[in-house]
Write a structure and sequence with these properties.
The chain is an alpha+beta fold. It folds into 2 domains: about 110 residues, 2-Layer Sandwich (Beta Polymerase, domain 2), CATH 3.30.460.10; about 120 residues. The chain is built from 11 helices and 5 strands. Strands 3-4-2-1-5 form a 5-stranded mixed beta sheet, sandwiched between helices. The longest helix is centred in the middle third of the chain and has 28 residues. The N and C termini lie far apart (about 45 Å). About 35% of the residues are buried.
């Protein structure tokens, strides 16, 4: 999808959203970055009193429309699990309509934002809580492998392989403008051993993939160990030993 083709369509839909009560409309995603393909959607964000998400087709294009309140968006700037994606998206976003300056204020806040806005204690607490919670998935995966429940093992493998990278992105203080790059960025930071295990977890046959997902957990646990409280450390240490 050419940017020159998508922008007029985005503006047309944006006007409709403004007529429908939006305070501001912003275009984000691959179209703004100049990376859109023929199958890429047009990501529009409308700001107003309600929250919703819809997908629909218009002029042979997939349109993604997200309604949010400005207050909810500012809260996302303070939320460990959301900030890594929200901040760079705002920094590159194209403001289509903004008569009251609502979107401009949010974009300025995103430009000035650093991880210190959330603060290390809250970030570490989030990481520790997520890694501790994923220990349950390790238990389920090991139990499924031992009892031959292959489908359940495949599901648990996928949960670990998918969810560890977003948690580590917070621990590593990564910003990613698109989730499509998240697993690559984490692998770049974590190094060759992580990259190989992640590759195996997604691409290998079932049992090697499960073992690779368990290795990912063990490496993540070691990397974030200093964020854990004593009770969390006990849970995570045992899960890591199961991973071995």
């Amino acid at each position: 999808m050419e940017q020159a083709e998508a922008m007029p369509l985005a503006a047309e839909i944006g006007r409709r959203l403004m007529d429908g009560g939006a305070e501001a409309v912003v275009l984000a995603g691959s179209v703004v970055r100049g990376e859109a393909s023929a199958e890429s959607d047009i990501d529009l964000y409308a700001f107003g009193p309600r929250a919703s998400y819809t997908l629909w087709r218009h002029s042979a294009r997939l349109i993604s429309i997200t309604w949010r309140s400005p207050e909810a968006e500012r809260e996302a700037f303070l939320t460990p699990s959301k900030a890594g994606a929200v901040i760079p998206a705002w920094r590159s976003a194209h403001i289509l309509f903004d008569p009251r300056g609502v979107a401009a204020d949010l974009q300025h806040a995103a430009t000035e934002w650093t991880w210190d806005v959330i603060g290390r204690p809250r970030l570490d607490q989030y990481v520790a809580g997520e890694i501790t919670g994923l220990a349950e998935e390790v238990h389920k995966l090991v139990g499924s492998l031992r009892s031959g429940r292959r489908w359940t093992a495949a599901v648990q493998r996928s949960i670990l392989a998918l969810q560890l990278a977003p948690v580590l992105s917070v621990h590593l203080r990564l910003l990613y403008e698109t989730e499509n790059r998240l697993w690559d960025l984490v692998a770049e930071e974590m190094g060759a051993e992580w990259r190989q295990a992640q590759d195996d977890a997604f691409a290998a046959a079932l049992e090697p993939a499960c073992r690779a997902a368990l290795r990912l957990y063990a490496m993540a646990a070691q990397n974030v160990a200093h964020t854990l409280e004593s009770q969390q450390r006990e849970v995570v240490s045992y899960a890591a030993s199961l991973s071995a």
